[in-house]
């Protein structure tokens, strides 16, 4: 009973803070933004560059197995089953990283979590480089997967916490751009260098990240949460520029964190309390839509899809790699801060539905021996449209929104849970894709079309627009009840 009374009192105080934050939000909409939002200090950009080296490392890990399969199997005399374990164990490592990444980032800091993830990736790449059998390969792949899982959570969170609100969406979206770049570059380089050399190349992003972390500040919001007021103010000043007035932003951050810290420490079950339920539904729901729409099944088996459709697998896959980076770059340049989160999600969802229907039509024609000449054209068009549509919205925006909606007192637990759901979805889709294709090739893509259509309904009815609002304002608005 005492706990319930404390929580009620804390909620009353929280509503006062929320009211003040919502007033600030209305001032922002009226065009009264001052100071830091108008500046673009170089330290924010440099800190983002250092952090997204972790995103590039993520892509490097994910893109390693595809171009190296034949060489590894031949040199180490692996069976198909052994190589399948090597390829898929990455996802299990990432799931472990997702579970532990949030609490670790809360405990040892955002920068500390990135250092730890880098160390796991370095150890993993070295294990792969020196491997003489399946066991060393699997240990190395598991270690790099763990690093991936931690990076997938901590990088967008760190960027969201250091950037002013007018830059936050665009800079957080660079996370997805660098993942795409890492995957595509690894695939292309992997076709011309030995698999052991490609493993050594995977060390480069880790080295840049570890070196760069010495020169960038810690997340101001994490410092404020841990009670390091002087370090918090110094970090915020360094990020905003030495002549910037940080008083208003610092007060807003501290007021919100002080209110949140009066609440009990978050546990996994706390995520399902009424005050947090909206944030959890939004964050986890977007991860479900992102993964169960079919992205990993299509990415992992792109060459097989092209082969079955009668198109050159090498040409199709390289085209896929180039277009993935091209459309991610186009998405970043248009910026989610100009277009908004919801419009990009809905545009992306529309493209994904059309792409799945187009691909389903190609396989339907093939199964029933209709319009044979149109089958490869429709299949290639559908897959490339899918890649483009995913890259401009559904690929990056869920991570941007996830980094914005969780209050800082549950951000570690909630972010880890959402990332775990994401990785479970990645495993489930990649594992079931071949079984679904055996059941019905066109039915598989119709199923993905239906899931993406349901995702659009979810975005329209549940997901809020967060463009141009501070993290504190977003969280106050979502958790008003």
Series of H and E elements: HHHHHHHHHHHHHHHHHHHHHHH
Q: What fraction strand?
A: under 5%
Mean pLDDT: 80
Q: What's the N-to-C terminus distance? A: 21 Å
- Sheet with most strands: none
Secondary-structure-based class equals mainly alpha
> Which bin fits the share of residues in helices?
over 70%
In terms of per-residue confidence, which ranges show pLDDT below 50 for 5 or more consecutive residues?
A: 1-39
Number of strands: 0
Oligomer status: single chain
Query: Helical stretch count?
Result: 23
Shape, principal axes of CA atoms: globular
- What's the Cα radius of gyration? 23 Å
Secondary structure layout:
Layout: H1 2-29, H2 42-62, H3 65-76, H4 80-108, H5 110-129, H6 134-162, H7 165-190, H8 195-201, H9 203-212, H10 220-225, H11 229-240, H12 247-261, H13 274-292, H14 295-300, H15 302-308, H16 313-334, H17 336-339, H18 341-367, H19 374-394, H20 397-405, H21 411-439, H22 441-461, H23 471-478
Helix pairs in contact: 1-12, 1-23, 2-5, 2-6, 2-7, 2-9, 3-4, 4-5, 4-6, 4-21, 5-6, 5-8, 5-9, 6-7, 6-20, 7-16, 7-20, 13-20, 13-21, 13-22, 15-16, 16-19, 18-19, 18-22, 21-22
